[in-house]
Sequence to fold (133 residues):
Amino acid sequence: MQLRKSLLTTAAVALSAWALMQSAQATEAERLASELAFDLADQDGDGTVNEAELAADTAAGFAALDANGDEQLEAGELEPHDPADFNRVDADGDGRLSFNEVMNNKLEVLDEADANDDGLLSREEAVKYDDEH
Fold:
């Protein structure tokens, strides 16, 4: 009985350690994805993203996601997505996202993530914002 209890405890500890490792790997993958997204948006390579670069990056992403070419993003074009996030960005509530709605959301995020209020988003600010949200 004591051996069985000890084995179950060891198994539980091992499972917990594995879960923590998986979480750490996911976090690292998310950080790398965030850094890559920033690097792609930083078109002039100066280490910051300004509004023009953000608009160009958003337009490219929007066009890539707009599978049916109607200049609107529908929930099905964004799978998987969080319905609450979709609804928050869908300012007019029509169940579709226009480029203006997406861009306004991106500008709000830029403003919120811009910790030093210089109107530019640094790589560090972007990664920190993504880590916190």
About this structure: Residues 30-132 form a domain with the Recoverin; domain 1 fold (CATH 1.10.238.10).
